[in-house]
Structures are given as C-alpha cells and as structure tokens.
C-alpha cells in the first residue's frame, strides 16, 4: 500500500509541475525585428537588445520590458524601434537625427 501511495504522490507532483507558466517574453527577437522592418522600413539593423525601459516612454501600469532595435530606415535616417516583449502590436519609434 505504501508503495502505491508513494507512486501516486510522485505522479501528482510531476503532473502539477508540468503546468508551470512560461516565464520571459512571449515575443521573439525575430518577431520584434520583423516589426522594425515591416512598420518602420528598417533596412539595416545595427543592434538588437531587450531592455527595461524608462517610465518616461510607457505608462506606469504597462509592461516596461521592450525589445530595442537600432538601425537605419530606407530613407537613411537613424532610428530606434521599441517593441513590447509580450505584445508585438505595441510598438513605437524614436528618430535619432
């Protein structure tokens, strides 16, 4: 009886652990770079990173973790594209020049 109880406990622990939620961004770096090229016509990517950005750029209740993609657009302008790490439809741009 003890043997079956031990096996049952192990099985319940394994099943319970397998339902853990994903930690980290749900948007990939490739998806963020695609936003930069599709929406902001970036033709050359100089640097891509994921950063916790200042609340000067986002509202207090929003996710402050963004992909930050620096590059040059088709008009030759330098720009930085910010793509929210959990929602690729939330993005904005900052022109450097």
Textual characterization of the structure:
With 97 residues, this protein is an alpha+beta fold. It has one domain: Nuclear Transport Factor 2, Chain: A, CATH 3.10.450. The chain has two helices and four strands, in the order H-H-E-E-E-E. It has helices at 2-17, 29-40, and strands spanning 42-52, 65-73, 78-84, 91-95. It has a four-stranded antiparallel sheet, with helices on one face. The longest helix is centred in the first third of the chain and has 16 residues, at 2-17.
SSE layout and pairings?
Layout: H1 2-17, H2 29-40, E1 42-52, E2 65-73, E3 78-84, E4 91-95
Antiparallel strand pairs: 1-2, 2-3, 3-4
The helix/strand series, from N terminus to C terminus, equals HHEEEE
**Overall SS class:** alpha+beta
- According to CATH, the fold-level topology is Nuclear Transport Factor 2, Chain: A
Please, how many helices?
2
End-to-end C-alpha gap: 75 Å
- Strand proportion, as a percent range, falls in 25-35%
Low-confidence stretches: none
CATH class: Alpha Beta
CATH architecture: Roll
Number of strands: 4
- What count of structural domains? 1
Assembly level: single chain
Overview in brief:
This protein is 29% helix and 33% strand. The chain is of the alpha+beta class.
Supply the key terms.
alpha+beta; 2 helices; 4 strands; Nuclear Transport Factor 2, Chain: A; 97 residues; elongated; single chain
């Amino acid at each position: 009886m003890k043997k079956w109880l031990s096996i049952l406990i192990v099985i319940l622990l394994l099943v319970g652990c397998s339902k853990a939620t994903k930690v980290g961004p749900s948007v990939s770096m490739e998806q963020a770079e695609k936003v930069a090229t599709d929406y902001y016509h970036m033709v050359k990517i100089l640097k891509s990173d994921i950063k916790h950005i200042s609340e000067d750029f986002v509202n207090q209740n929003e996710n402050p973790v963004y992909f930050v993609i620096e590059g040059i657009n088709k008009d030759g302008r330098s720009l930085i594209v910010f793509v929210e790490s959990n929602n690729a439809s939330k993005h904005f741009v900052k022109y450097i020049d």
